[in-house]
Structures are given as structure tokens and as C-alpha cells.
Amino acid sequence: MLKYIKAHLEMMHMFLRSISLLRDEIGFSNRYPFSIPAIKSLNKLDLKSKVTFFVGENGSGKSTLLEAIADKCEFNTAGGGRNNMYDVHASESSLGDFIRLSWLPKITNGFFLRAESFYQFASHIDEVDSDGFRDYGGRSLHKQSHGESFLSLFVHRFKGKAIYLLDEPEAALSPQRQLAFLRVIHDLASEGDSQFIIATHSPILLGYPDATILSFDDGEIKEVAYEETDHYQITKYFLQHREKFLEEILEK
Q: How many other CB atoms are there within 10 angstroms of residue 131's CB atom?
């Protein structure tokens, strides 16, 4: 009974409930991105937690699906929210036209972080900000270190009742700042009524309690436990057997 109540309360504060691939509109196309095995096998993906992680090898489709969700949310797929209008080459999602998002309730507030085009986003903010960079710690993002600028975004711009789609947010964060970011996630998810979907390679971020981890490896999208991820297993093995591990990979 307590487990049911906890799950019910968790769902009460979620907005995006499921993602469906419109297979009838795609047909049997083998063009990219439908040629990606995990995308090709997708039917309906139910989201069960306020914090969901996408994991998988490069090219497994996790960033592709995340960008498609951002496109469907009408966020700038180069990075930003609905009101951030600027262009970055090849930032449009071809998958966004072929997915359906199910909401309860639907919200329009949120942000898509795309680590690889964050520099262009910072330049855009320099051009349009008229409020003294209030949402970015009071300084231009270009005048902060890479890690500082990411954390400034998370701390100052991210606010409750929103959905945040983050593609490799750890790219600019030291391990210590990744821990600080976990606190930001916790505060927003538990108190600020926010939902997170995060594509990551970080074993630190993946350790967030009660999150759902969805693996895009092995040609399908499936839920896995933290200890089952390569990120955890390889990191643990390396830390416990560093000399043996290095000998194995460097002397072959």
C-alpha cells in the first residue's frame, strides 16, 4: 500500500507521461534516424519518474530522441527554451515529426540543454539579454568558466513547474560540480515540481536516487538498474583494479 501511495505521489508531479513513435506514418523506412535500432524498435515509452536518464553508447539514439522531444516541446533544438530564437546549422530534428508526447497536464515552460552548442546559446544571450544576466548569475556566460556557466544556468534559470531536457550536462562539470548539480535536480524535482530527462555518460549523475535509467543499447530501449549500467561497472572495475585494467588495454 505504501509503495502504491509513493508511486501515485511521484506521478502527480510529472508532466510528460509517455512518448510514442508514429509507426504508421513512418512505414518501413530505413533512413536515418529510423535506422537506429533503438529508435526502430520503439513503440511507446512510459515515463515513471520525475528524473529519467537515457544511457547508451554513442550513436545509440539517446540524444536523437531527446532532441526530438525538445522539438515537440517547441524548444530551440540548438539549445534553449521557447523564446530563444537563434540558428545553429544541423540542429533540426527529423524525428520530432514522428513522435507523440502524452502530457498530464501539458506545460510549456522548460529548457533544452545541448552541450555541444552551448557556446552559441551563450552568444545569443549576450545579444538579447536586457536584464543584467539575472537568470545567469549576474554575468555573461562567456565571462564565466565553462563549468561555472553550466551551473549558473542550472541554479539561476531553472525554476519549478517545468520540464528540462539535458544532453550530457556533465560535459563541463567537474566531479564536485556534478554533485552540486545533483542537489539542483533534487531541489527542483522534490520542491519545485520539475521533471528531468537527461542523456548522460556520468556514473555520478546516474546515481541519483529513485531515477529511472533507460538503456538504448542492444537494439531496444529498456529500463536497467544503476548497477547494471556499463558506466557503473566499468568505473567500479577501474577504481578497484586500475593497474590490471590499464595493463589489459595498453599491452594488447
A: 9
The pair phi, psi for residue 162, each rounded to 5°, is: -155, 165
pLDDT one-digit tens code per residue, 55-65:
999 999 999 99
d(CA 99, CA 32): 15
Sequence-separated (6 or more) residues with CB below 8 Å from residue 41? 219, 220, 221
β 99-103/16-21 pair status: antiparallel
**pTM score above 0.85:** yes
Q: Which amino acid is at 65?
A: L
Task: Output the DSSP codes for 13-58.
Answer: T-SEEEEEE-HHHHTT--STTTTSHHHHT-SEEE--SSEEEEE-ST
Q: In whole angstroms, how far apart are CA 117 and each of 53, 128, 208?
A: 20, 17, 26
Task: Give residue 128's Cα distance to chain centre.
Answer: 25
Terminal Cα distance for the chain, rounded: 54
Q: In what order do the strands lie in the sheet with 99-103?
A: 44-46, 16-21, 99-103
- Kindly state the cell numbers that stand for 10: 511521484
pLDDT in tens, 218-230: 999 999 999 999 9
Question: Cis ω on the peptide bond leading into residue 105 (within 30° of 0)?
Answer: yes
Q: Enter the C-alpha cell of residue 33.
A: 534516424
Please name the helix (run of DSSP H) or strand (run of DSSP E) that holds residue 184, with its range, or none. Answer: helix 175-190
